[in-house]
Automatic annotation (TrEMBL):
InterPro entries: NTF2-like_dom_sf (IPR032710), SnoaL-like (IPR037401). This is Ketosteroid isomerase-like protein. Residues 14-115 form the SnoaL-like domain. Transmembrane segments: none annotated. It comes from the Bacteria. Gene3D superfamilies: 3.10.450.50. CDD domains: NTF2_like (cd00531). Pfam families: SnoaL_2.
Length: 131
């Protein structure tokens, strides 16, 4: 699988809220980094099972991802590294309010598995999840 194939699977799994399948896309030692994490979110998750546990534990958050729209895809000189400019189209399930969250995401994908997923999401683009 190419890195782009993996990213398309990731998109499908997140839309379907299939967090087990999402976690399975990561290498055993895969990492998620959220440098601008807010609202009690961790800035780093290490290992596929930690990613799975966190994804399943937070699956009841009141966000329904409708789609992930790639604004721009940047392939780098390193064939394992892909940078996305992305807009997440979503809905706050408690209020029904639609919203978009823009971000830059950096991936390192080796042998069809995500080794690193670094998400630079603008905290101001995500609605208050406590409502």
């Amino acid at each position: 699988m190419t890195p782009l194939d993996v990213l398309e699977l990731r998109r499908r799994h997140l839309i379907a809220r299939d967090f087990d399948a999402f976690a399975d896309l990561f290498a055993e030692d895969g990492v998620i980094e959220l440098p601008f994490a807010v609202g009690g979110l961790p800035t780093r998750l290490e290992g596929r099972e930690a990613i799975r546990e966190f994804s399943l534990r937070t699956s009841d958050r009141p966000i329904d991802i409708i789609d992930l729209h790639t604004v721009q895809l940047h392939q780098t000189a390193d064939p394992e590294v892909v940078i996305l400019e992305l807009t997440t189209e979503a809905r706050h399930t408690t209020t029904g309010t639609p919203f978009e969250a823009r971000c830059i995401q950096v991936f390192r994908i080796h042998n069809g598995k995500i080794k690193l997923f670094r998400d630079y999401v603008g905290a101001h683009t995500i609605p208050n999840l406590t409502n």
